[in-house]
Write a structure and sequence with these properties.
The protein is mainly α. The protein has one domain: MetI-like fold (Orthogonal Bundle), CATH 1.10.3720. It is built from eleven helices and no strands. Helix 2 crosses helix 3, helix 3 crosses helix 10 and helix 9 packs antiparallel against helix 11. The radius of gyration is 22 Å and the shape is elongated. The two termini are about 20 Å apart. The model has no long low-confidence stretch (mean pLDDT about 85).
Length: about 280
């Protein structure tokens, strides 16, 4: 770990620190016992920041700080679930498709290309409309994950096509190993570095997608997320009322989270390029 930190570039270190802060807020501080921040009229309305309410309260009597902590938790949870499902399914489909070839490859690529060319925004709008304003973090993540696996599958297939002709693959095949066993034990280790980079990028993309839907008023109304928090503040005229802590805190948190993930992704890619160049 010390060697990794010593060799890591500045962007990677900054990205790790910023991302770790949000994970600490979303998955450690979040579990401190507190009142449900979504409940209306829990506190007096439009209170300024104080020791009791660090970021004040909303126009419907919610504590802004705990609302923000809940939003960070849910947005990160959505991003991580979508990234996990998209990366696992995409890598598995891509490796099997590229290594198998023939009819299996053609069938899987037809399905993959279908999800690549389908415009995701209209489908996401339709799916959120079918939820009728009520959803959970898991359900929202599953909806977003529908479109998170296709591009990774395409990219990892190209890697599989180059690896399948290597001598160690022929040796494994002649030794009696099956297709799935070869994919998991021989090819997958070469894809792990790329998979981690894709996982981080997919997390960022999923949070951005959910936030975009929320700001457009298309995310489920009962889901506390960074995007919905911005939308609620905008809908209740927080800007006109100059409630800057209410609308500014989720905007600033979203910006810092995106910057942290971006620095983490680009810094990690540069770090891996430096290792490969040694």
């Amino acid at each position: 770990m010390k060697k990794f930190w010593k060799n890591a570039n500045g962007r990677l270190k900054t990205g790790i620190i910023m991302t770790a802060f949000f994970f600490f807020v979303g998955f450690v501080i979040y579990y401190i016992p507190h009142i449900n921040p979504f409940t209306f009229n829990t506190y007096d309305k439009n209170l300024p920041p104080s020791w009791e309410h660090w970021l004040g309260t909303t126009a419907v009597g919610q504590d802004v700080l705990w609302l923000l902590i809940e939003a960070i938790h849910n947005s990160l949870s959505i991003g991580l679930i979508v990234a996990f499902l998209g990366t696992v399914v995409g890598v598995f489909v891509g490796l099997v498709s590229g290594f198998s070839g023939g009819a299996v490859d053609r069938a899987l690529m037809v399905v993959t290309d279908t999800f690549v060319v389908i415009p995701s925004l209209p489908i996401l709008i339709l799916m959120t409309a079918l939820m009728k304003g009520s959803s959970t973090v898991i359900l929202m993540a599953l909806v977003l994950a529908m479109f998170a696996w296709a591009w990774p599958s395409r990219q990892i297939r190209s890697m599989a096509l180059t690896l399948k002709e290597r001598d160690f693959i022929h040796t494994a095949r002649f030794s009696g190993e099956g297709t799935i066993q070869i994919v998991v034990t021989e090819i997958l280790p070469y894809a792990l570095s790329w998979s981690l980079s894709n996982f981080m990028n997919a997390t960022l993309s999923a949070i951005a997608s959910e936030s975009s839907l929320a700001v457009l008023g298309l995310s489920p109304a009962n889901l506390i997320s960074l995007g919905n928090m911005i939308q609620w503040a905008r809908a209740r005229n927080a800007i006109m009322a100059q409630r800057w802590f209410w609308i500014g805190s989720p905007i600033l948190a979203t910006m810092l989270l995106f910057i942290g993930l971006f620095l983490l992704i680009t810094g990690y890619n540069d770090y891996m390029s430096m290792k490969r160049g040694r």
